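In the design runs reported in the main text, the only information available to the sequence generator was the tokenized backbone. The following block is the verbatim input for one such run; it is reproduced so that readers can re-run the procedure and compare outputs position by position.
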């Protein structure tokens, strides 16, 4: 077996300012996993800095080098074969960087399995529908809003005190339901309540997302009890235990499930299934990935989710170096000369 992980970078066509950072560039970590004559590929696109419980790209690279790649090498050496893709998330450590790193392994192992059998993503789960999509805009700057015509819902980034009449009018002019996304910056229950009341008077508010810290279920439950708009949790959804606590506290009626954050596709499906059983509406989110990882997000959403999801391809100024293939997840990333190799083993 031979494994190579490299780091590439793209710049977004439409930068998005969130409460605590501006999304302008995104680093992509690609893995090529060669075993028994076939190669599988995976991708994660971590944030540039540690924020709201999500690890930075450097933290994920450190986890790969120190923990994940050495353990993967031992696992394959001991057994002579790759782990089953749907079991990979079970070996992830508790640290967020470990979870994201193992989700990269899971995708590469899945792609390897599909390529070995000569099949594609469509053989994994039966897609019920083409997933409806979400467009993301920001009320925190004056960037142009690139909203695709086929996006059926808009997610608007803001923080308390950022509303003014011009921006509210601009949001209203989109004529689509809106998720108001605070990215943990809400602070005060009273301030958030007033802002949601103001917006809901003229805008179709589909949900208010993650106004408070990820672990603050009580404040989210108090907001939900006011029945101003559905409450959605995003950064607060990292495991099945989180989902069960959300259900117990009645802290949200919507959840955003991001596979890299929870350990990969298998763990994400378990959380989505549990949410649906609990009467909580799940949707699939992402981290500005390339079309390689986005293909898996779309397949997951199309098979198991009814809500519009953040699964459309991301517009970048320079296209990611990918080659379309007829099997596997559907793409092969091509390592450029300037890309940094951040981990490898085997020969």
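Verbatim output:
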């Amino acid at each position: 077996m031979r494994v190579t992980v490299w780091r590439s970078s793209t710049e977004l066509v439409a930068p998005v300012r969130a409460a605590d950072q501006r999304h302008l560039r995104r680093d992509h970590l690609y893995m090529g996993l060669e075993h028994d004559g076939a190669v599988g590929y995976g991708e994660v696109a971590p944030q540039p800095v540690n924020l709201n419980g999500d690890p930075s790209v450097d933290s994920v690279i450190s986890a790969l080098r120190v923990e994940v790649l050495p353990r993967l090498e031992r696992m394959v050496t001991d057994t002579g074969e790759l782990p089953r893709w749907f079991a990979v998330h079970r070996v992830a450590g508790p640290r967020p960087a470990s979870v994201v790193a193992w989700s990269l392994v899971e995708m590469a192992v899945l792609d390897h399995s599909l390529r070995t059998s000569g099949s594609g993503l469509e053989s994994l789960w039966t897609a019920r529908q083409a997933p409806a999509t979400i467009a993301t805009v920001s009320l925190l700057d004056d960037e142009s809003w690139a909203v695709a015509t086929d996006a059926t819902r808009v997610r608007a980034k803001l923080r308390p005190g950022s509303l003014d009449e011009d921006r509210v009018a601009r949001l209203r002019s989109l004529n689509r339901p809106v998720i108001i996304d605070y990215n943990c910056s809400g602070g005060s229950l009273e301030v958030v309540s007033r802002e949601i009341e103001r917006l809901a008077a003229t805008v179709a508010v589909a949900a208010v997302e993650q106004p408070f810290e990820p672990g603050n279920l009580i404040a989210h439950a108090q907001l939900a009890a006011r029945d101003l708009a559905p409450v959605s949790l995003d950064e607060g959804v990292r495991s099945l235990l989180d989902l069960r606590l959300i259900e117990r506290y009645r802290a949200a009626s919507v959840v955003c499930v991001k596979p890299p954050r929870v350990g990969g596709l298998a763990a994400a499906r378990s959380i989505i299934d549990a949410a649906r059983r609990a009467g909580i509406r799940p949707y699939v989110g992402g981290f500005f990935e390339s079309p390689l990882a986005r293909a898996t997000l779309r397949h997951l959403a199309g098979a198991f989710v009814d809500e519009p999801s953040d699964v459309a391809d991301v517009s970048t100024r320079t296209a990611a170096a990918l080659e379309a293939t007829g099997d596997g997840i559907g793409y092969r990333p091509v390592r450029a000369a300037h890309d940094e190799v951040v981990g490898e083993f085997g020969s």
